[in-house]
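Input.
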Amino acid sequence: MVKERIKKVLVYIFLGIGAVFMMFPFYWMIASAVKTPEEYNSFPPVWWPSNWFNFENFIAAMQEAPFFKYFLNSLLVTVCCLVLTGITTILGAFAFSRLKFKGRDTIFSLLLSLMMIPFEMMVITNYQTITKMGLSNTYAALIIPFATSIYYTYILRNFFATIPDSLYYSARIDGASNWQYLWKVMVPIAKPSIVTIMLLNAVSCWNSFMWTQLIITSDKYRTLPLGLFAFMSEAGSNQQYQLAAATIVVLPMIILFLFCRKYIVNGVARGGLKG
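Output.
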């Protein structure tokens, strides 16, 4: 018993130290964003700002660049990606878990093999496609490449596969169509996994930078990550403004993760039980 307790204490100490190292950059970013110029440039460094409600750096950053416009762009793109990805993921997962058609497992295996291809290798092809369609410098260019995901389909398909077949046959006997069974039975049951997929997709869309930098050249369609990059290049050495702008970009996702972390862990764990 004593050895087990000592072992458990050591594990918690190790995890606590790891958590401190992981959280410290976020703390330093937020703390530096509310520091005065004197506090920021002081040596030795000021670890605890004198006023945590000093928003002068945030106001200055918002005046230097239209971060509110960037925020609305990011919000629009994220919401559209969530809706489209949710629809394609649910329909794809249902087809590969419940519908019987020739070559189903082979097609799904081929789609899973695409997960081994990094997104960076498909950027040029996607760029050529979007450009030929005349969609560069538009919201559609930011949404279409992220309208589906085989990874999310894989997670939800595995969860759908754990639902007993008896429910499906009972619903069919009662006269329910596949469409009705999907939305009235399977989707409510799979709500934890669907919420997880939506959260992961929201984080991915919100933080998208490389594709946005490649396809967007107009200030009108800049999202927060791209706007932050441009602002950091234009703001020069005024690092308080840069950290304040970085806080504006990161804080929504930090809040989302803190409130929804249990859904993410549980949904991924339950979705990976059966392959």
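The longest helix spans residues 239-271.
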